[in-house]
Amino acid sequence: MSNFSKKINTNWKPVVGITMGDYNGIGPEIILKTLEDSRILQLCTPVIYASMKVLSRYRRLLNLPEWFIHQVKSIDEITHKKVNLVNCFSLQEEVEPGKVTPAAGEAAFLCLEQATKDLLRERLDAVVTCPINKKNIQNEHFQYPGHTEYFADNTGQSDYLMFMIHERIKVAVATGHVPIKEVASVLNEEKLRTKLQLMIESLRKDFAVLKPRIAVLGLNPHAGDEGLIGDEEIRIIRPVIKDLKRQGHLVFGPYPADGFFAQHHYTKFDAVLAMYHDQGLIPFKSIAGFEGVNFTAGLPVVRTSPDHGTAYEIAGKGIADPTSLLHALFWACDIAKIRRFEHLIEISD
């Protein structure tokens, strides 16, 4: 939780939607485990988008504690002192933990679709999405690589940032889900500048860091070694850093990725921009562990998610760890609160 958020003295609690994801994955289990602690209600009003039948079957299967869930037909009927559930579909097939089925994909989309509608109507202050299977969810209304692109399209945003967040480290990537062999060809000054500007704005708007310090990693081994092992650092990365510094931003680099993380230099910065997926996410997940969270920065809405997938291999076994979902919920509440009271940032700082 940010220092600014801790300073806010308010009883305001956000309404946070939680989408079920693929019901044959671990989504239902981690939702039940996360929300069984009634102290969550002191933080927010949770609204689960799922099927009560699915959650009931997992409760029985895993012998999870019974606690009250307030079932409603729409967001307009929720109660603010309870965990609410909007029934989004009628379960027609058996729940089959660990199995990929078209029905589970269709159900995941219906939950996501309803939560998105309520989010865009400003009936939700944030949404937390549980893992989907990116293949079985595909349909005429969902033709995206994942949640991030879906929310960007539905909010009309062409520029956005996959921001991995944790109290100790925050990492984003310049090129996202791109094959390694294509990374160098898609990296350019415009893309890099846009990602850095999104990161700067998000750190200010979503994390109340008024003057963020950002580290930029190099693309090549040893950050190119002055052009001996690639020249992208010289041609692309350095000019963008120099330009942003000229504008008054605290942007530094490019740093060789291995030494940067090995020597814990990330602790000196508010965030790190990696050039490609694994360069940033391997160290992030090693440091954050189960507490890592995926946040989509650059959108007019707040969306977070656990930093893991459907985990079919352990679905229905009762061993799924809800920690990442719990932290995704914490961060969603925190960011929603900061955005709501952002006019107090300069006064509070």
Automatic annotation (TrEMBL):
Pfam families listed in its UniProt record: PdxA
E.C. number: 1.1.1.262
Keywords assigned: Metal-binding, NAD, Oxidoreductase
GO molecular function: 4-hydroxythreonine-4-phosphate dehydrogenase activity; metal ion binding; NAD binding
Enzyme class name: oxidoreductase
Record's keyword annotation contains Oxidoreductase: yes
Name of this protein: 4-hydroxythreonine-4-phosphate dehydrogenase
